[in-house]
């Protein structure tokens, strides 16, 4: 007998299905009924979990943000005990690999950014707040690793950890956009080269 999914599991299935549909058709052209079909449920069931298409879209945004955040945390946990340079390299590699693996969903990023200027006032506020939170979260993670490196004598004391953290986080967005527009773009190789140059420039002189 097939086990009936819990409410939490069903909600996640709806969000995952919505991510695929939004990525394929865009927010404006997506119908809630299409999401329901993709999730294998009735349209009314979607509204049991989300009161509107805006709410569903925002849930997809939060889901993608959580997935990328979990990827970062897992990479750092795996690299625990290693030097700051190796931890930063591991984090960068994990995030870029996640971007590559989810390339088919990258159109969602464009939809998310567009929502900060073209959605309803309420939705714009929600999206802007969430964007601010996720960027701050990643800057804290990267900045924390750099500060650990400075404290441990691995990196130069003169470096600005906040500025470098912002540049690293920004590189993920920038490289992801280039890879989305150009399937031949070598995002992993480019990111690896960038990170090597960055770390070499931060290393303390012995």
UniProtKB/TrEMBL annotation:
InterPro entries: Homeodomain-like_sf, HTH-type_TetR-like_transc_reg, HTH_TetR, KstR2_TetR_C, Tet_transcr_reg_TetR-rel_C_sf. Keywords: DNA-binding, Transcription, Transcription regulation. Coiled coil: none annotated. The keyword Transcription regulation applies. Pfam families: TetR_C_24, TetR_N. Residues 8-68 form the HTH tetR-type domain. Residues 31-50 bind DNA. GO terms for molecular function: DNA-binding transcription factor activity; transcription cis-regulatory region binding. SUPFAM superfamilies: Homeodomain-like, Tetracyclin repressor-like, C-terminal domain. PANTHER family: HTH-TYPE TRANSCRIPTIONAL REGULATOR BETI (PTHR30055:SF234), HTH-TYPE TRANSCRIPTIONAL REGULATOR RUTR (PTHR30055). This is Transcriptional regulator, TetR family. It comes from Desulfosudis oleivorans (strain DSM 6200 / JCM 39069 / Hxd3) (Desulfococcus oleovorans).
